Amino acid sequence: MRLTGKVAVITGAGSGMGEAEAFLFAREGAKVVVTDINFEAIEVIVAQINEAGGEAIAIKHNVASKEDWQNVYNKTIEAFGKLDILVNNAGISLAKPFMEQTEEDWARTYAININGTMLGMQLAIPLMEKNEGGSIVNISSISALTGMAGAGAYTASKGAVRSITKAAAVDYGKKNIRVNSVYPGYIVTPMSASHMENPQYKNHFLSQIALPNLGKAEEVAAAVLFLASDDASHITGIELPVDGGVTAK
Asked: Has 172 been annotated as catalytic?
């Protein structure tokens, strides 16, 4: 198992990619702190992990709140004694045409997607320094690499995640803290399935990728696991697309 003895915090883990990451990390031996604004959802996930012989706790978490982040880390240390891995998975996207996006839309998107990521890293890094190292994986988006129609605030916020990942990788590499980013493409999740698998739109999404199928949350989780684990011990500051070849075009 690749994460035996590791303690991981995974945000936005109530469904989709975050949920898949929580289950996979637990199967790989990690003690998992599962956080989400939807506490009822993560209670179910944590119960399933623990029933299967893993170790996990659930914490309600608004990633835009520094106080909530401090609470998450306090409870992580109380339960498991340390922090080795942070996965900044929580995020939102507002599907509005560029010219219709308001300052409020921008502020809300940035508060969760980039401010939440930054707060998580700022408070995690001192804990990882105590362990003489750690791994942070930030979830960006292919929109940060290629642009995406109809999602200006989202694209900008994920571009900021891309940049802050590289900055932190350079700043804290000598502390043996690795910071990498993953760029999901067209991934089918409970939230996206009704749209992506709709016969009216599915062929359009398939036309964008080089592989024959849309992506699965579990495929993103596998990439995150690799970067979080010691298998990636000499990798930091990279951009890893999980996009079926969208960015290869």
From this structure: no
Domains along the chain?
7-241 (3.40.50.720)
Closest CA to 241 of 212, 209, 201, 213: 209
Q: Which of 73, 154, 183, 186 is catalytic?
A: 154
% pLDDT > 70, the chain: 100
Query: What pTM did the predictor assign?
Result: 0.96
Residue 94: pLDDT band by 50, 70, 90 thresholds? confident
Distance CA 21, CA 32 (A): 10
Q: How far is CA 231 from CA 23, 169, 180, 223, 224, in A?
A: 19, 17, 13, 11, 11
Rounded-to-integer distance, Cα 51 and Cα 79, Å: 18
Token duo for residue 174: 């000598």
| Strand arrangement of the beta sheet that strand 55-60 belongs to | 55-60, 31-36, 7-10, 85-88, 134-139, 177-184, 239-242
Query: Please, what is the average pLDDT of the chain?
Result: 95
Phi-psi category of 132—alpha, beta or left, where left has phi over 0 and alpha has psi -120 to 50?
A: left
Would you report the helix, strand and coil content of the chain in percent, each value rounded to 5?
55, 15, 30
